[in-house]
Amino acid sequence: MFDKGDCLIEVLPYIKKFFKKTMVIKYGGAAMIDENLKNSFSKDVSLLKYIGINPIIVHGGGPAIGKTLQQLNMESKFHGGLRITDEATMEVVVMVLAGKVNKEIVLKINQNGGKAVGVSGVDASIIQAKKKLVEDVDLGLVGDVELVNPMILNHLSEDGYIPVVAPIGVDENGKRYNINADSVASAIAISLKAEKLIFLTDSDGVLDKNGELVSSVNIKNIDNMINDSVIYGGMIPKILSSKEAIENGVKKVHIINGTKVHSLLEEIFTLTGIGTEIHEDE
Ligand SMILES: Nc1ncnc2c1ncn2[C@@H]1O[C@H](COP(=O)(O)OP(=O)(O)OP(=O)(O)O)[C@@H](O)[C@H]1O
Ligand SMILES: [Mg+2]
Prior knowledge:
The chain is α/β, with parallel strands linked by helices. It has a single domain (21-272), classed as Carbamate kinase (3-Layer(aba) Sandwich). It is 38% helix and 22% strand. It is built from 10 helices and 14 strands. An 8-stranded mixed beta sheet has the order 5-8-2-1-11-13-14-12, with helices on both faces. The chain has a two-stranded antiparallel ribbon with strand order 3-4. A two-stranded antiparallel ribbon has the order 6-7. Helix 3 (35-50) links the parallel strand 1 (22-27) and strand 2 (54-59). The longest helix is centred in the middle third of the chain and has 25 residues, at 87-111. The radius of gyration is 18 Å and the shape is globular. It starts with a helix and ends with a strand. The structure holds adenosine-5'-triphosphate and magnesium ion (MG).
């Protein structure tokens, strides 16, 4: 029979291992599907906080931005998984990410027992950005992270709060940029020397050509997987950000299915974890 006591005691080694450690959790817009899932995500991160882990949430909001643009009869255009962002689109991006999505997540966490504080990368200049330059296409106000100023995130964490970060950056002239949330999560994880970086998305992890889960990806195979179109669209920034994190000292990086209830807890508190782990040669 299922024994609650056994089940609870099984997590003791993990609680011990991760006590006071930072975990950056990228909460993908694709995983914010219904109230039930949003509540269970909020409970999971509140639980992590109360057992002594420091979760830092970085959220996306692709679907919410797309929906609002559609309501305003504005076009959504993508290049390599990134949204081409002109001035008018940027206004919508800021409103939706920093105004709507960020505050909804904060509210949900607070309603589910945690204490969350929402910021964007503009607050305390957390995310210093520069224009992202790619060959052939002008992406407009799409930025790359230049520097992370993590001080305020540390202060919030140490004071018992769960920081929730909207992926908007600012340059030295005060110009704001739309930055893919995967790369913001990775940059924050690197700057905080995070124990784990976990991406919650809408697939079980990285899938192969047959749609089967790939449980671990060696970073040296990533370029081939992109060239072979096994990895495309929104998975491209995610896998490249994972690689960046692993190469810069983040201990573990996982891509998991945020549309499954409590997947976050299953990843953290089981030996094998779930989803796809990204690693380099031992
Ligand atoms: N090999 C792959 N395995 C799994 N998903 C893949 C793969 N290649 C591309 N994808 C796509 O990547 C998508 C996930 O990225 P997407 O940007 O849409 O979501 P997200 O990053 O979780 O949300 P947001 O962008 O709002 O933060 C999947 O829904 C799938 O369509
Ligand atoms: Mg995405």
